[in-house]
Amino acid sequence: MNGATMKIFSGSKGIMRILEVVIASIVLLAALSYFISPQITQSDWQTANIQTETQDALAALDKAGLLDKYVAERDGGGYDLYNKLSAMLPVQTDFSMNVVLINGSSYDLCCSFGQSCCKDIRNVKSYTKISYISTNYTVSVLVWRVFY
């Protein structure tokens, strides 16, 4: 070390201790960041909101008499039911709808993928099931968020 550097460190041992503390804290933070990894979790509020919005959409269709009509037709009026539900639910939401009649028989009513793949939602990792009970049938809707 040259003379100027020696004069800085010669009279005070406090600077070396500060440097030790700074280096130790950097090492400690690096070690903690290695062992504690951040995890992204979905908020329960998002699930509650999607359940409420889907329940409201089904209630609105039922009060308008459209849900009974679509259940009686067994095809959802083509894409009419799909279009109505898509307009009522948030933009990044997909769904599948199944109807269970009072006699126990069930069928798929509509799906955001189209009628052919209502039963094939195995790729969906996280969905919410909403049941809407009427006098003659129960409508079960599986709703999930899609991030494009």
Kindly report the spatial arrangement of strands forming the biggest sheet: 2-1-4-3
Rg over alpha carbons? 30 Å
Query: What does the main sheet amount to?
Result: 4 strands, antiparallel
C-alpha end-to-end distance: 60 Å
Word description of this protein:
The protein has 2 domains: 3-35; 44-145, Beta-Lactamase (2-Layer Sandwich), CATH 3.30.450. With 148 residues, it is α+β, with helices and mostly antiparallel strands. It is rod-shaped, with a radius of gyration of 30 Å. Strand 3 and strand 4 (137-145) form a beta hairpin. The chain is built from 5 helices and 4 strands. The model has no long low-confidence stretch (mean pLDDT 75). The longest helix has 22 residues, at 14-35. The chain starts with a helix and ends with a strand. 45% of the residues lie in helices and 20% in strands. It has helices at residues 3-10, 14-35, 44-63, 66-73, 80-88; strands at residues 93-101, 106-111, 128-133, 137-145. A 4-stranded antiparallel sheet has the order 2-1-4-3.
Topology:
Layout: H1 3-10, H2 14-35, H3 44-63, H4 66-73, H5 80-88, E1 93-101, E2 106-111, E3 128-133, E4 137-145
Antiparallel strand pairs: 1-2, 1-4, 3-4
Which key terms come to mind for this protein?
148 residues, Beta-Lactamase, four-stranded antiparallel beta sheet, rod-shaped
Short description:
This protein is of the alpha+beta class and 148 residues long.
